[in-house]
Structure formats: structure tokens, C-alpha cells
Amino acid sequence: MNKIDISSIGPILKKYNLKPLSLERFGKITKVVTDKGIYALKSISHKINPSFPTFLQQLFQQGYTRAVPIYPTVEGKYLIYHNHKFHYLMPWLKSHTLEHRGDHYHAFFKEIARIHLTTVSKQQINNENEIKGHYETIIKKWEERNQFLERFVVEAEAKWYMSPFELQFCTYFYETSLASSFARTQLEKWHELMVEKKSYRTALTLNNLSDSHFLYDDSGKGYLSNFEKVGYASPTNDLVSLYFRILKTYPIQCTDCLEWLETYQSRFPLREEEFYLFLSHLTYPEPIYRCVRNYSEHNQRKSEREHVQALQRAYWLTKNIEFVSVKLLEAEHQQKEQEEESHTE
Predict the structure, then answer these.
(1) Which domain of life is it from (predicted)?
(2) Measured distance CA(78)–CA(16) in Å, rounded
(3) Which domains, from first to last, does the chain contain?
């Protein structure tokens, strides 16, 4: 939190006919206290898609009301370009407290599901080559990554002395290979089902989800914010990015993560092929690959210790994902068995 000079924000706030009484900065957000109320002014990169407020307005028109609104200027503009950045104004809302973490995540997943349910659209596949091409593109990318990791291990083991990073990765390599194989199996299941169904679903996805973007008004109602990377894609995109963020921590067995997905699916059930697509992209060891790639190409940007620490965190993330994905797959199999038993009775 930093106090900032009013003169630096004044030209922007004039566009809203607001006179600031005090300002406090919290990262990209500036808390603006005025005689008309308290606002949040966000400053973002000029490289973002400036049309994202349009998606937000469309969402409101479809009846979804649990998104933090963006206020227009007196000229009716939703974004202001100033000092090489875009800025936009919102109401000031509160973040959750640690003692309400469980309720917070359940409410958060409900709202993600509601956005997907509100905006979902079924797309027909008229040409099977579309799916085949997409599948082969992913498989090719993963195979190239796997080959890169294999070469790294072979070259490291051929040395008289391995660096701490090389030694660490060699101990992780077998489990990394298993994770890659698991992800490919799930993608193959997705491909088989897609060939049969010949359709897929898209929905409005935020593509940069974090629970810190779920805020509360004074009455305790929760609202989603940060629509800067919004677009239409598979709803699984949001789930993958969210679980990557949640599970990027020390080694844990996140049973809560299973309940949160149940909460999501109670509002917006994933189709079978979507479930396997979700698992495939979640479990492929991309974080470990990126660490090894960064070490190979940008070795001097970080110290050896920093590279080792980054690799260890990526390994922890992979193992945390492994626990969640195995439990989800077990639950899926149990559900199928129960459905088959009910059909035979």
C-alpha cells in the first residue's frame, strides 16, 4: 500500500468528473476516495485487447449481474489511455478474509460456473479433420517437449559432474515422463469421444482466473473482476488456469479442490470429453518443461540456486496436480460404475 500524489491521477479522474480526497495504491489498483464515494482505478498495459469492456457489457445484457462493472467517463468511454497505459474505474469492493476461505472458494467456483452457463454455445464440427488437426498439433508439441527433456537428461548424465539443477531434474525425470504419459492418455480419450459426438461447447472465459479477483460488496455478495483477457473458448480453460494457480504451493493433498469442482459441476456439469480435456491439459508437466527450457536458454539470468528452487516449485505443483487428477479420475470411474449398475437393475 502506497500513498501517491493526487496530481498524477487527477487528469484521469477529471474524465469522470471526480475530485479525489485521498489515494492509496495497491499494486495495479488505486483506491480513490471522493465526496461521491470510494472507487477503484486500475492501470493496465497498453498491449491488452481494448475491446474487453464490450464482452462485459454483453454479459450484463445476457442477465449475468455478478461481475464488477466498469464505469464510463462523462464522454461514455470505458477505457482511458494516459501515460502509455489504459485505465478504468470500478466500485471499490473488499477481498475475502482468511477465516472465510472455504466459503469464498465455493462461491467463487459457483460464479465461474454461472458465467459459463450464461454464455455457453454449442458448436458443430462439420469436418473431422478439424478435431484430428487440433489433436495432432497438441500431441506433436508434447512429443517435442518430451524429446527436449530426454536430451537434457542424456547430456547431463554424460557429464563427469552434473550441476545441482541437472541432478535435481534427473531425479524428477521418471515422474515427469509418467505425468506426460497420463496427460496423453486423457487427450486420446477426449479425441475418441469428439470423433463420436461431432460437437463442442464454448463459453466466455476469463483466462486469467485468481480467487483474488472475486470481491465482495458490503452485503457480502461476491463479484468477479478482471475481464482483461476475456474471450470465447472451452470452459475447461478457466479450470486449468485456476487449478494451476491454486496448486502452485508447497506439497499438499488438496481435498478441498475436489469439493470445489463438485460445486462448479453442480451448476455447470462438464461433458465427458470436456472432463478428459481438462485432465489432459492440467496434468501435462508444462511447468517442469518451462523450468528446464529456461535453464538451458537463460542460465545466466538466475543463479543456480534460483533455478533449482524454481524447478522444485514446479515439481511440487506437478505432484499436487497428480493427487487431484487421480482422485478426480477415481470419482469419475465410480460414477460410471454406479450408472452401469443402475441400468442393469
Answers:
(1) Bacteria
(2) 10
(3) 2-49+69-92 (3.30.200.20), 99-344 (3.90.1200.10)
